[in-house]
Every structure is written in C-alpha cells, then in structure tokens.
Write a structure and sequence with these properties.
single chain; alpha/beta; Rossmann fold; 2 domains; 11 helices; about 10% strand
C-alpha cells in the first residue's frame, strides 16, 4: 500500500513538505542499507533542519542588501601586506557583536574598506545575525523619505534593532541639518546595544568636520568611538587604472589622424 497520497497533505499541514524533496532517496537508502526506522527518521529530520537553515541563511543574505558578493576568502591580503590580517580574522569571529562594540574601517579609496566590511557582514550572516549594508547617502535619504510620510520612527527603530548595521562611505558627503540629527539619534539608539561597522575615507580625527553642528557631532562621534575597534587600511588601490597599451609613435599618429577624420 502506497502511503504517499495520505502523507503529502499531512506533511503540508505540519509545514514539513520539504521532507518530500528527499523522502524517496532516503527511503531507497534505508532499504538498501537496512536501516532502523529511527535512523531513517533521523535522516529525514536532519534533511529538514538543513533545508530550513539554508532557507534562513538565504533570507538573511537578501535582507542584508550587500552591494555584491564579497567574502574574506576572496580578499587578496598579499596585495597590501601591511593590512592587519590578524585583527580582521579576529573580527570575523563576530565576538565584537556580542560585546556590542563598533568597528571603524578607515583608509584611502580602493584599499578594500567596503570589501572587508561586507565580508565581516557575511560572517555574521553565517552565524545567524541579521545584517544590513547601506551607504550614508542611501540611509539618510530613506530616513528623509520616511519623515515625509510620517514613518520616520518606524524606519529609525528598524535601523536601530538590526544586529549589525554597516554604514559605508561615512563623510563622503558633508551632512546637512537634519541629517546630522538623524545620525545622532540612530547612533544613540544603538549605543552599547548593537554593533555598527562604519567605513570612511576620512581620518578618524576628521569625522567631526562632516557635522554642521560641531557640538552634536562631537557627542555622536564620542559614542561611535567608545569601545570601538579601529582598522586602518593603507597602501595601493585595488581599483588602480590599467596601463594604456603602448604603440609605436607612427602608429599613435596614424590613430590620431583617423580619429580626426
């Protein structure tokens, strides 16, 4: 007697329909290996747990809104050998999230700030944390739009509660009022409760220059830097321009002449 017609609706009712994906294969394996009923059941349950974990992981990655797929496995530490690899690998354990500490990643353009920030975010996602990657400009734009529709508090609370918030390109554009107040309120809500990664091209002692209200900026930066880990990047840019092809002088002149014609 085939139990499948009765089994399928019951599994769906129990929200275990994913078991159907591996049921047939596991049933053949159990027959071939003469497994006990409990071993057969254990395999089905393990498959279901793995499926749900993968589904949750994929959902967290989508919610994180990473700019692109950047991991530590893909990062070329040999390109700039002075990068503090030991600190980065320690941060990848995500212990700083348990501390509620921030991470400040500072350095010139193209030295890998966004890559490292997103890679650590990926590590956090793998460990079950909720992560959100955004830029200063995008985040403040969303808060501004939310204020216009009376949804500011809801949006601020959502940003405040995410386990790990990554703000890329802080200070790339000077803040205006009330943007400086929005940053201050957000940092205040997350202070010593949730971890924030902030990347910036500005030196840490220049961050205050991004705020039009210096007193507000000083209070905000004081909270950001308190107990924070600092990762200073320096060296060559990963985005260095490729060298132009070299042509013989007469060929260059010919190409210029053709371009004019």
């Amino acid at each position: 007697m085939n139990p499948m017609p009765e089994l399928i609706p019951m599994l769906k009712q129990l929200r275990l329909s994913g078991i159907l994906d591996s049921l047939e294969a596991r049933n053949r394996q159990a027959i071939e290996e003469k497994l006990a009923y409990t071993d057969f059941l254990a395999m089905l349950v393990q498959d279901e747990v793995a499926r749900r974990s993968q589904r949750k992981f994929a959902m967290r990655v989508r919610r994180a809104n990473f700019r692109n797929h950047k991991t530590l496995e893909e990062f070329d530490f040999s390109f700039n050998p002075n990068i503090n690899r030991a600190l980065i690998m320690d941060l990848a354990t995500c212990r700083f999230l348990e501390e509620g500490a921030n991470l400040l990643v500072v350095g010139p353009c193209g030295t890998g700030k966004s890559h490292i920030a997103q890679a650590i975010g990926h590590c956090a996602v793998r460990m079950g944390y909720d992560v959100l990657f955004t830029t200063q400009t995008k985040m403040l734009g969303q808060l501004h739009a939310a204020r216009a529709t009376n949804a500011y508090e809801r949006r601020l609370n959502a940003l405040a509660k995410v386990d790990l918030l990554i703000i890329d390109d802080f200070g790339l554009k000077p803040l205006r009022t009330p943007q400086d107040e929005d940053i201050h309120d957000l940092i205040g809500e997350r202070y010593e409760r949730r971890s924030t990664i902030i990347t910036s091209n500005l030196d840490l002692n220049e961050w205050g220059d991004a705020f039009p209200n210096k007193l507000l900026g000083s209070a905000t930066i004081d909270r950001i830097r308190h107990g924070a880990y600092s990762l200073l990047l320096d060296g060559k840019s990963f985005r260095a321009a490729r060298p132009l092809p070299k042509y013989p002088k007469n060929e260059v002149a010919e190409n210029v002449k053709k371009g004019k014609n």
